[in-house]
Amino acid sequence: MKTAVPPDRLTRRRLVLAAGAAPLVAWSAGCGPSEPGPKRAARSDLLAVDVLLLPDAALIDRAATVNARLREAWPDGFALDEAHRPHITLLQRFVHRADVQALSVAVADVFRLERPRALRLRATGFQSQPWANLDVLSYTVEVSPALRRMHQQIARIVEPFTIKGGDAGAFAPDGTDTANPDAIRRVETFVPDASDGNFAAPVVVGVAPEAAVDVIEAERFRPFDFSIADAAIFHLGRFGAPAARLWSLAEV
């Protein structure tokens, strides 16, 4: 099924699905944002962040098989590894650098209540999106009531930390020259454009020429269930993909 894939999944030559072993941000209870509510700040003081879920082996193993087929068709495509992990984005926002520790505390509190590792999700098919002369292939994931509620609770708890007016300086270096305007716009407008009723949970599995993607999409898809292995906050790279881990539930 040809459909839209959010620009945060793309880089110019590859898709970066998650970063490697960047240091985690320390956190402690009882912290709050430096000032409540959406606000303007010096752009050099901002970070573009992605609060996301990392699927378990039930999805990763299947995704790796599909990814290998795509790389046979286009060897320049990325492999799924520690630096390129499939993920589900719950929220992207600009926040103050000084608030990352307090943000981690707030997000951890939500995840303790919502229990992401208890989620049972279902991949229901493939979707693809043309990009340059290639197609990006993703799993379509059913947005269960529990997943939607988790997204909404994360959006609610992050709102007091949200800062308007982020630019290229809020993104981590990722090999691109400057931040993609679409990536900046997506973070700035994730709420409301990709939130609540607009929330979707595709999981990118690879990239290849359209013909190779079409072959896979034409095959019978057997829906499968999977769970969540971890939840995390990542610093987004300049093209809008997760580039550096800031916090992880697994480390709490």
Q: What's a concise summary of this model?
A:
This is 2'-5' RNA ligase. The protein is α+β, with helices and mostly antiparallel strands and 252 residues long. It has helices at 57-73, 100-114, 145-158, 181-193, 210-218; strands spanning 39-40, 46-55, 88-96, 121-131, 134-141, 163-164, 203-208, 224-226, 228-236, 242-248.
**Structural Rg:** 17 Å
Separation of termini? 39 Å
Q: Which H/E pattern describes the elements?
A: EEHEHEEHEHEHEEE
Say what the CATH topology is.
Cyclic Phosphodiesterase, Chain: A
Corresponding CATH architecture = Alpha-Beta Complex
CATH classification, class level: Alpha Beta
Enumerate the strands of the largest sheet in spatial order, edge to edge or round the barrel. Answer: 3-2-9-10
Shape, please? globular
CATH superfamily: Cyclic phosphodiesterase
